[in-house]
Fold this protein.
Amino acid sequence: MTDLQLHQRSEIPRVVSEELAQPKIDDIRVDFHPRSEKPSTTYHFQEYIRDHPHTYNIPTDFTPWKPFRTKLDFDVSEFALRAGLNTNLTNDLIGLLNRCAQGQDDMTIKDSNEMQAIWDLASFKSTEFQSDTVAVNYGGEDRIFEMHYRSLLDWMLDIVTNPELSSKLTWDAEKLYKFNGVKWERFIEEPWTADTWWKVQSQMPEGLHAKPFFIILYADKNKLSSFGTEKGYPVIARCANLPQDMRNGVGLGGGRLVGWLPVVKEDSRETGKKQWADFKSIVWHESFLKILESVTLISSTGQTLICADGIQRDLYPYILILSSDYEEQCVMTLIRGLRGLCPCPKCLVRKDDLSDLTKQSPLRTAQGTVDILKKVNTLTRQSDKEEILKQNGLRPYPNVFFKMVNSDPFAAVSFDNLHFCGSGLFEDHIFKQLKLHIEKSVGRNIAVTIDMRVSEMPRWPGLNHFNTVTNVSFNDGSKLEDIAKASIFLFAAHDQFPNDKAAFQLLKCLRAYLDMTMYAGLDLHLESTLEKLKDAILKLDKEVKVYDSLTYGTVFEKSWNFIKLHYHVHLYDDIQSKGVLRGFSTKPNEKVHGPLRKIYHDRTNFKNVAEQIVRINQQCMVAAAIQSQVLAIEEFAKGKNDSEDTKDSQHEALGGGHFYLGSLQKKLPLMDLEVQHSTAPVFQRFRIRLGEFMTKLLVSSGIPLPNNQHVKFIPNDTVIPAYYLKINYESEVTWCSEVDLLRSNPNFYKQSRYDFILVKTETGAMVAQLLYPFICIVGEKQYGIALIRPYKVVQRRSRLDKELGLIRLQREADSEFISIHSIIRGVVSPLVAAEDPQQTDRFLFDVLDGDTTLRMRKLFPYFFT
């Protein structure tokens, strides 16, 4: 994510405490958990986030590909493991064969059978799968299910004894604070900076060696075959002691398949019966016990071992996060779900109160549930037992997670933005209602106007582009998030419901939803942003209730009493307890289904598929382990000096680390430039105006004028146009370096593209369109300059703009020059009415990302009150 490392504080020199007797604004304080026996430490801001030099681990194994006889043997085998010969893989194959032909290395494997045999020999490099059976009685007979799993203890040992991971692991809870000039304001990011870690470490046995090992588990049943006749049930484990970017990946330290749960086939005679639902839940928990068995005892006693850094620790495994969709959470917590009186996995809210986000209900707890089950077991009459279970929405079976000391499944299940926001509240409710209002509109084809505006939405890296949205549906939750995040119906439909009060109120619901999701998704939370999240949730509640009252008794009436709305009640507490939302989202885990489905289609014979899939997955893990060691050797051999990218160093230096001009064109005489753009008013008097600007820029920057005279360009003087601009900026969210990739190109993939930018001014900031970035040469020096067209923020806002929280921009008549050093970052600015060529007003897209959300509220606070 960044050039600047926010997390490697072990390398930061401790600041002398006397220097910080009176803290300065933005100073950072770290309070370590008392059990760590580390003193609180305060840093100046730049010391805390400074760029750390890259360090190189000395490899412990210089032949990690063994038992493969040569590295080429491994390379070819690893290639064979990958599926599908696309262009890149074809090139890989050609390269490998050329190496063999040129005698650079030896290929000794003779056929696929020998290759499979060596893979089996190499299985020790990653925890192997085991198979077992689970027997659960139903209707008086035992039903047997096959189960495949990895030992969680062995997986845990793989991590803590890996030298490449030892410096990445965090063992002690921390509380982080930033001084805002008045007080120390706490902030939360990784799980070890949140409340649960601190609480768990406080409850552990005393002693410096006792450390928590926090586990994140994901489970989700998914279709393997196209028609859904074959299903898979993978369980993924991740280590919360590792940084988010590492544990959310698939490489070293990333998620690992640790279980393949049995899928209970539906029986038409039993489906829908309570006993059948109970039975399927029992199968799940009995099977999951096989995964947990190796760590249940040591969650109480601890596991003593020497970690890769040479330090002895007593590790206590703890289930911190259960990441899944709602249906899976009901199974994990053994509640009755939507058919129960209390359908929430985290609290005892009644099913009729799900639409009220102001209501706080008693939380479910492991101990409270154990007490209820004990009480049930003392009763003799089945009806009395059922009544107690029914009132609490529970199933009559002890939860497998209760076997883990201190672990609480009700606290571990977590808010999931993918299922509760993108494909939940937005897709199934807000988006659906918006389309209904469009469908029922009379006399105007609103859909045509909206789709036209949507198709003209400016493109941006990572943001899906759509040509239409009013008549489509999506299975991809990320695309649904983009539609919402793009505030499609805020900029595209802001003026499309002049006589529909309810539809406009629904747009206000969408605005509240966008604000809530942007605050929820921040990668670092201050106390103040968490409070704004809480306010945004209450604002959403208020706007939905108004819409509900306006549509009562109409064709637009609907129930807002659903679990995915209610779950927002727990969003604030989940972040406060476990760290930022990205840490417990299902997004990284959902990506696992694609490769598993590919293995099913391409590598199995469609019989006994579970055994084949876990075997091939095991080989993938072995390949990843070997590959990471090979890369470490290559990096060590190459040396850090050679790793510096010196390409185009002259132009890199031009930007001083803030910007980089790329896609440079040939030198262009100013005379030719003015001829090329003679019909464009923004380029009029380009040469003369540029001279005037450069004179002012040099004087204001304290740079001597050439020959002590004003800068005057002649027609044959040249500039170097650039079609690409990379801007580095400090994020308002994480305070780390982020990058925007900007285009100013007349023919970018057969379309003109001129991005928008935020420019620093003497009075604050302005929005502008990037028309023509270039390198300007004055004397012997080069300068990064851009021709821009400024836009001014409309201060007198219409009622619609004000109520929808929209910032309208008006184009200025004249263009102007700026130093590229004054560009803060890129922004997105869609047209207000793309269908009207005479309308040049735009909106400032304030929900592009977390930085844009916070930055715009800082620059224009009066627009968001």
